[in-house]
Design goal:
The complex is a heterodimer of chains A (175) and B (68). Chain A has 175 residues and is α+β, with helices and mostly antiparallel strands. Chain A has six helices and five strands, in the order E-H-H-E-H-E-E-H-H-E-H. Chain A is elongated. In chain A, 11% of the residues are buried. Chain B is elongated. Classes of the chains: A alpha+beta (175), B mainly beta (68). Strand 5 (139-145) of chain A pairs parallel with strand 5 (64-67) of chain B.
């Protein structure tokens, strides 16, 4: 018999996503996310929290949730995932489901998927070009661009398209 | 511009968890048509790796709040 009713774990989320993949693939690969995240998965910038609930049986959740306001979790975590870890081997967790703060607290734009896709195609078209062609009118005040992180140019040689002494002088040591 | 860009966007779909977000893929080709950092315009074409991109829009006027 477990001594606990429900275990709660907070995992930081990043702009690159959360640790869902570790949870859904099974107990063995899930464990690293319970302790210190592995170096390659360590977040560059924490943007929020993902709250995980673990219990031995579904009935434990009934006891737990009957005594708390489940919406209160979203005050400090933008996503919540509940899963059951059996008390006996093979101890593979069963993910009951994941809810997000956007689902619970925000109804979204109220636009259909088709409308959003049409709008996205407008934005990437030559007429707007992500705000370049329309002088930024399509961009919100709090617009944020998230760019891919590229390796330094000098790490393993220059890209082959940048050649010649002129390129070396332009890039210099400060890149 | 030194490159002639040929853009392809495909696979548009809405994020099931973030209703304001649209995901799509991009495949780009860049043809070197002018001198670039001393490199002669040989007409070679760079085939850039496919990227997964997203656009977040706000509720009111569908302005872009996040792109990457």
């Amino acid at each position: 018999m477990n001594q606990y009713v429900v275990q709660i774990l907070l995992v930081p989320t990043t702009v690159h996503g959360t640790y869902d993949d570790h949870v859904t693939v099974g107990a063995k690969k899930m464990r690293p996310s319970f302790g210190r995240p592995r170096r390659q998965h360590r977040p560059q910038k924490k943007t929020g929290w993902h709250l995980f609930f673990g219990a031995a049986t579904v009935e434990h959740y009934d006891t737990f949730l009957s005594n708390v306001d489940d919406y209160a979790f979203f005050y400090f975590a933008e996503r919540c995932t509940a899963f059951v870890v059996p008390d006996s081997p093979p101890r593979l967790p069963t993910v009951l489901g994941t809810a997000t703060s956007s689902e619970v607290a925000s109804p979204g734009t109220g636009h259909t998927e088709e409308q959003l896709i049409v709008r996205a195609k407008e934005i990437i078209s030559k007429d707007i070009n992500f705000g370049v062609a329309d002088d930024g009118e399509c961009l919100a005040e709090d617009f944020l661009f998230i760019g891919a992180q590229m390796r330094p140019v000098k790490q393993k040689g220059l890209p082959y398209i940048v050649t010649g002494q002129a390129a070396l002088e332009l890039i210099g040591d400060g890149f | 511009m030194a490159f002639e860009l040929s853009e392809e966007f495909l696979g548009f779909h809405r994020d099931p968890e973030y209703p304001n977000r649209v995901w799509f893929m991009s495949r780009e080709r860049a043809k070197l048509v002018q001198e670039f950092f001393g490199a002669a315009p040989t007409g070679e074409t760079l085939v850039l790796p496919p990227q997964t991109m997203h656009l977040d829009v706000c509720d009111k006027n569908l302005q872009v709040t996040e792109n990457g």
